[in-house]
Design goal:
The chain is an alpha/beta fold. It folds into 3 domains: 85 residues, Arc Repressor Mutant, subunit A (Orthogonal Bundle); 96 residues, Periplasmic binding protein-like II (D-Maltodextrin-Binding Protein, domain 2, 3-Layer(aba) Sandwich); 100 residues, Periplasmic binding protein-like II (D-Maltodextrin-Binding Protein, domain 2, 3-Layer(aba) Sandwich), CATH 3.40.190.10. 38% of the residues lie in helices and 21% in strands. The protein has 10 helices and 11 strands. The strands form 3 sheets. Strands 3, 4, 5, 6, 9, 10 and 11 form a 7-stranded mixed sheet that branches. The protein has a two-stranded antiparallel sheet with strand order 1-2. Helix 1 crosses helix 2.
């Protein structure tokens, strides 16, 4: 059976301009590399190189062995990574729940860095609405959550938190809806128009109608994407994350609702949250450190 070094010697000899450079790439002497190649050919009973010219050239059989050697070395590297992963006690899976109003862009580099460091761990990002993100952590279904909501929603559940960033929701409507109200100044005038709301994916607002005035027509949807689509079509009005509205506001498809009795902007602070009682593993700990390492 060929050794790992013999396969490494084969690949280096093919990929480097000379045997000297191939040996240097493997931190070996050139005689050691040459010996490994000859041993490999002897064990396989095949000439892998044509040695008639100045440079070694793969034979037809050598080309096929080289391609298989590449795959074998890749599998060997994966095996070593998996062994290190298991030896360190790294989690197989870490779940980060994110309240959907949060813009992921500022944390992508941190997520990429942690995933590269712990390549054998599956980092799962789950999007939730309103109280859903923090509730998943409280129930033990997620390791971390990013939420704009106060974490003390479930009695008896202690949570660690750290500030992450700030954001805001904007109250918007389409020009075609606003054209029906040329002198609009109060939310009371919009009672017959549908206020589009996103359904809470948790249970923290069960039985409540947050931000809905008395006798207001309203629709519940399951995503901000659906909410945005309905509002752009003039079928209702409502709040959406500012980062989702940049292009629509600039293009004039939506307008900010400036009303005397209903704020056009709702500002809040996002926090990174985890259960105090649970002992986080290495990957969850590194995510906690990287995501909360500084203001985004």
């Amino acid at each position: 059976m060929p050794s790992v070094f013999q396969l490494q010697a084969l690949c280096a000899a093919v990929e480097k301009p000379s045997l000297r450079q191939a040996a240097e790439a493997l931190c070996k002497t050139q005689p050691a590399l040459t010996h490994a190649l000859k041993q490999l050919e002897s064990q396989l009973g095949l000439p892998l190189f044509n040695r008639d010219g100045y440079r070694l050239v793969l034979t037809g059989s050598g080309e096929r062995i080289y391609q298989l050697a590449l795959k074998t070395l890749e599998s060997h590297a994966e095996l070593e990574q998996l062994a290190q992963h298991l030896a360190r006690g790294d989690e197989d899976r870490v779940v980060l729940t994110v309240e959907a109003s949060f813009d992921l862009t500022p944390i992508l580099s941190a997520l990429e860095s942690v995933q590269a460091e712990f390549s054998q761990t599956e980092i799962v990002i789950q999007q939730e609405y309103l109280t859903g993100a923090v509730e998943r952590v409280q129930q033990g279904h997620a390791n971390l959550a990013i939420t704009p909501l106060a974490p003390a929603l479930s009695p008896g559940t202690r949570l660690d938190t750290q500030p992450l960033s700030q954001g805001q929701m904007l109250n918007v409507a389409a020009p075609r809806l606003l054209a029906r109200y040329p002198s609009l100044c109060s939310i009371l005038e919009l009672r017959k128009e549908y206020q589009i709301l996103v359904q809470d994916s948790g249970s923290g607002t069960l039985g409540l109608k947050l931000g809905v005035q008395s006798a207001q027509r309203h629709w519940y949807v399951n995503s901000f994407a659906t909410k945005l689509s309905l509002i752009e079509q003039g079928m209702g009005w409502g709040r959406l994350p500012e980062w989702m509205l940049t292009e629509a506001l600039a293009a004039g498809r939506l307008q900010l609702l400036e009303l005397a009795d209903f704020p056009a902007r709702q500002r809040f602070d996002y926090h990174l949250v985890r259960r105090s009682a649970s002992v986080p593993g290495p990957v969850a700990t590194r995510l906690w450190q990287r995501l909360g390492g500084g203001a985004l």
